[in-house]
Protein 1
Amino acid sequence: QVQLVESGGGLAQPGGSLRLSCLASGNIFSINAVDWYRQAPGKERELVAGITSGGSTNYEDSVKGRFAISRDIAANTVYLQMNSLKPEDTAVYYCNAEVTWDTGDYLYTGNYWGQGTQVTVSS
């Protein structure tokens, strides 16, 4: 099986920074596309940033120039560096990944979600 665990959330002041991590564990063969989503109270979950298996990245317009997604392939970890934080960035942040893992009999590719990490931006 595969588990995704996010960490790094917390309280930040406007203009501050946080770095979120998404660690994938299990008998992983490869991590394919990874996306970061967020969900604010009363709002739908929205895509914030993504990185493909080839390393291409994309960002939601409101975070372009402030957030950066990156990965450490050897560590099975994807990061979201968040700078110049604004109160409207307050949300629970989730990572979502397409992961291929070895069941012992065959390789299986599935889509997985982490449990989320709270980010609060407030003075």
Protein 2
Amino acid sequence: QVQLVESGGGLVQAGGSLRLSCAASGRPFSRIAIGWFRQAPGKEREFVGGITWNSITTTYADSVKGRFTISRNNTKNMVYLQMNSLKPEDTAVYYCAAGDTYFSTRMSDWRYWGQGTQVTVSS
């Protein structure tokens, strides 16, 4: 069992930056992949990116590539999503998730989820 708690969301102007955090507890954190998803109002939840347990590999959705960066600190059981050059279309609730496959875009492949944190980007 893994418990995940996101934080760091808020309101930011277009072009600004935010860093989201995902705190994990429970099952040994250092051996699981972490993914970030987001869900905008009226839209399906979509994959933002993922990171392997050892931080060697990350993957990103095309819509955020070059603007968002995922990192993790296994000694602190933390994963971060650095979001730069934010756009109004990045407005969504952001979720972190834990699983075995860092690149999977399917929600069903991620076994544990946080409660989400709201990010709002104003134009």
Protein 3
Amino acid sequence: QVQLVESGVGLVQSGGSLGLSCAASGRTVSSFANAMGWLRQSPGKERELIAAISWSGGNTYYADSVKGRFTISRDSAKNTVYLQMNSLKPEDTAVYYCAASPVGIKAKTYNYWGQGTQVTVSS
């Protein structure tokens, strides 16, 4: 059974940095996903894909809203994907989810999800 468990501190001031991690257990990521992504959802808004990484080749995708500020990375040996968030803004406040896609970095199909982590950026 696949589980994605997120961790990371969720409160930071505007302009600060925060790192999230998502560890997969039960199976190796390569056995159930071609890509891992981070998505976020804030109240009243649709869930959006903000970053994704192909598990084998390391190709990445970033939404325009986070490009240049966020970095996604993976550690295959640890079965873990990371999201480093710098220069955070209040509008980055949202619940952040890691998820696994059997398709690819720009896919809208995600079949395994983390529990969600609240990230709050205070002004």
